[in-house]
Amino acid sequence: MTVVERFLRYVTYGTQSSETSGTTPSTRGQRIFAEALVNELMTLGLEDVSIDEHAYVMATLPANTDAENIPTIGFISHLDTSPDMSGDGVKPSIVHYEGGDIVLNEAQHIVLSPTMFPEMSEYIGQDIIVTDGTTLLGADDKAGVAAIISAMAYLKEHPEIKHGKIRIGFTPDEEIGQGADHFDVAKFGCDWAYTVDGGQIGELEYENFNAAAAKICFKGLNVHPGTAKDKMINAALLATEFASWLPTEQRPEHTENYEGFFHLIGMSGTVEEASLSYIVRNHSRELFEQKKELLMQLVARMNETYAESTTLELRDQYYNMREIVEPKKHIVDIAFQAMEEVGITPKVQPIRGGTDGARLSFMGLPCPNLFTGGHNFHGRYEYLPVPSLIKSMETVIKIAELTAKK
Asked: How far apart are CA 300 and CA 293, in angstroms?
């Protein structure tokens, strides 16, 4: 089975995660997919294949060389797809791209266009996997799952490629920030690992945002509007006033590269009660702490005018893995060399987001991130160039080979 065939099969599993279920995995579909992978890994002849009560899947490809001191390395991807758009009933198709628009759904007038996504021009002459425009595709991260399993199958079929012990792992609920919650680093037993969860071909990342979630709650005083003068406190208006105090230039739509942001992801409000939900991001730990301090200052400012009206819930989510990975830079260098040797120009850049690898790095498993090849994750315009997926698989194979040689 080719890596493309695997991917096309994997996306038919509905594995959208849910922030409201309170269970791990958060949805039944993830366990169904995990159990299918377990069966496949056993059929391929991998060893130590396991699935735990939370649907974490692990397996081993044993070393095929007697060379001593070869590190045990791992490759990790996640089972779930984003809650941002449905991942049920995905209907993938392969289009040979010759430029211009791709009509995803003629009936609903859904078009994937280089006018909106100019990077499409880089894939003229290639086969591209797309959806019918009514769901996301699921390359994030079923492309990673397909690349890893296909690489293990290839290594098993080609014993002339010498490698050390390799561990693979698949996690649930990464898209809702819980992918590492129950990951057993000791059981995984690796010197280091790579998440295969990046985007465009060549991406190699060992820096990510420091991240926090913030919820600001406002308590108002509801009085009949006919007699409200000097009495009413409108919580919904407090919320909108608070939002206006945050710097406009630090919104996601105005930032790039190493610039952090405050991202308003939810709001609700009545006269009596209102709330704002933000995610707070910055690559710099110092600037990250300053952003959190600003939120606390603004809450205090609101309470100076409207006593005891405003509260803040602030929770750190993950930190920049650079401080863990950089002292072990050779693990990035191996991936860089691997990409070059399979004909890819590496693109070393910061992640404007996070992966399981960020948290795993702080749990004792240094974990840079590798590309899958996909674009426009989490939405109807997601697509995956076939040659990029194949190169993702080849990169995993080459990393295993180079680690044994070094």
From this structure: 11
